[in-house]
Design the sequence.
């Protein structure tokens, strides 16, 4: 009897682990299933344990800008902003004939709004490409952009390559 009891204890310890250790075997589950990796599932993957699909992914939120004018906060759509100008630790948003200020940096807005059609043309200027009426050469590698509102913005030579990547202002060489 003692020999059978020792064999049973050894098999229990092998299946469950030593006392004080975490059990690797699960009652009612095959030995292979107990060893299956437990990696997190992606949001779009089906939940195989429950047999039901996971929650649907939500659409990304649109990019909005918040500007302050006369002690009021305004939510601005990037399409309505013609250009953004740096002013110290703030930026000035020029939209719909009014100016708004926001505590943000030109560099952050340049990266955030690039997908919405904004282009950095000067160290302190970002322009909405859709707001440009026409462009003129202003010197070596610089351009003057006239916007729908009548405002004129001059680019810097340092930003010429980025401008020409987005707006083909030069004739292709033959």
Sequence:
């Amino acid at each position: 009897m003692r020999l059978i009891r020792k064999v049973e204890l050894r098999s229990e310890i092998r299946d469950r682990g030593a006392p004080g250790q975490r059990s690797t075997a699960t009652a009612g589950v095959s030995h292979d299933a107990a060893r299956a990796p437990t990696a997190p599932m992606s949001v779009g993957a089906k939940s195989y344990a429950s047999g039901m699909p996971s929650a649907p992914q939500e659409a990304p939120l649109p990019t909005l800008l918040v500007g302050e004018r006369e002690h009021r906060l305004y939510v601005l759509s990037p399409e309505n902003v013609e250009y953004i100008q740096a002013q110290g630790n703030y930026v000035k948003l020029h939209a719909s004939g009014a100016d708004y200020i926001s505590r943000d940096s030109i560099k952050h807005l340049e990266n955030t709004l690039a997908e919405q059609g904004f282009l950095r043309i000067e160290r302190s200027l970002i322009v909405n490409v859709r707001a440009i009426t026409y462009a003129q050469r202003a010197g070596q590698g610089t351009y003057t952009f006239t916007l729908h509102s009548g405002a004129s913005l001059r680019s810097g030579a340092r930003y010429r390559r980025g401008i020409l990547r987005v707006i083909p202002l030069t004739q292709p060489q033959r």
